[in-house]
Please model this.
Amino acid sequence: MTDRNETTVMIVDDEEIIVGAIQSFLEFETDYSVLPFTSPKRAIEALEEDAVHMIVADFMMPEMDGVSFLTRAREMQPEATRVLLTGYADKQNAIRAINEAGLYHYLEKPWDNDALMLIIRNGVERALMFTELQARISELEEANSELAGFRERLIQAFL
Amino acid sequence: MSTNAPIDADIERALIDQSHLATLGTLVAGVSHELNTPLGAIRSNHDVIERALLKLQDILEDEVVTPDELADVRRIVRAMDGVLRTNGIAVERMSQIIHSLASFGRPDRAEVDLIDLREGLEGTLAVLHGQLSDIQVARELEEIPEIRCYPNRLNQVFMNLVHNATQAMEPGGTLTVRTRTEADRVIIEIEDTGKGIDPENLKSIFKPGFTTKGRRVGMGLGLAISQQIIDHHGGTISAESEVGVGTTFRIELPMDLPASALEEGDTDATT
Model:
C-alpha cells in the first residue's frame, strides 16, 4: 500500500522509454511517489491496492486503449485526476474521447516538460481538494445525522 | 477506367509512379511515427539533464554543501540513472529504425540481388511498427533459401500487403506472416483477422483502380502494382477471404528470375 499522505502519480504507457522519461523528470522535479506501468491491466490491478492522486495514460496501447483504461480508473478511484497522452496522428480521436470520458486534460507527444509539470501539479492539487471536499462532506453528513438523532431524542423526551 | 482492358505502357508507368508515391507516403508516415517515441523520450531527458546541471551549479556555487543540498544531489544522481537507461534504449531503438530503413530501400543496392525475403518482411514490420502497435504480430517464418529477385520491388509489395492488413483490422486483431518452401518455390503468406472481402469484391481486388477506401491518389493501385511486380518475377499472388474472419494473401515466387524479367541497365549483384 502506498502511504496515503504521499502524493502518488501513476504513469501508464506501453513504451518503457516514455514511462522512464516521465518518471525521471518527476523524480527530479518533485517529491511525488511515481508508479510506472507498461501494462494497463497491471495498472488496474495496482489501482485496487494503491490510492493515487494522478494518472497519466497513453492513448494507443495494445492491451487496452488509454480512454477505456482511464474510464475504468475513474470507476475505481473517482477522486484521481486523469490525463491522456496522445500522438499527433490520433489527436482527433483522442479529443473526442476526452469529451466522452470526462478527462481533465490531454497532452500531445512529444510533450514539453514545463507543460507536463503544470498539468500534473494542478491535477494533484485538484485531486487533493476533491479528497478534502469528500472528507468535509462526510463530516457534514455525520454531523447532520448526529443532529437528527439528537433532535429525535429531544422530541421523544418532551412527548 | 476500364478494369479489364490491357493497360497502355504510359499509363502503366504512371500507375507505378503513383503507387511508389503512395508506398513512400506510408513509409514516411511510419518512420516519423516510429522516431517520434524515442525522440520524445530523449527530448524530455535532455531537459532533465539541463535542469540537473543548473541545480548542481547552484549547489556548488558557494562551495558549501548543506544536508538539504546533499539530498538534492542524491535525487539528481537517481534521476540521471533513469535518464541514462532510457536514453540508451531510445538511441538503440532509433538505430534499429534507421537500420531497417536502410536495408528496406537502399538506392545504392543493386536492383537484382540474391536475398532471404524474411529480411524484407522484418524490415516492413519494423517500418510499420507504429501501425501495428494495437495488433498482435505472429511470425511463422520457416527457413527459406535466398532467391534472385528485385528486393526493393518485393519490399514494396510486402509493405502494401501489411499496410492493407492493418487497415482492415480493429485493435486486437492478429497479423500472421509466414514463409516456407513448397517444391521449388518460396511461399509468403500475409494473413489478417480483419473484416474480410466479400466474394464479389474479391474478384476485382487486383484490377487497377479498384478500391473500397474512397478516392484518394495512389489508392486502388497497390494490389494491381503488387500483382504486376510478382508477375514480373514469374510468380503468382492470390487472395482468400471470408467476411468477418479475415483475408490471406499468398505469394509464390520461383528461386530465380525468369530471363524475361531482366531489364536493360539494371544492376545485378548476382553476376
Observations:
- Chain B touches chain A through 34 residues (CB under 8 Å).
- The two ends of chain B are 41 Å apart (CA to CA).
- The longest strand of chain B covers residues 174-182.
- Residues 162 and 227 of chain B are 15 Å apart (CA to CA).
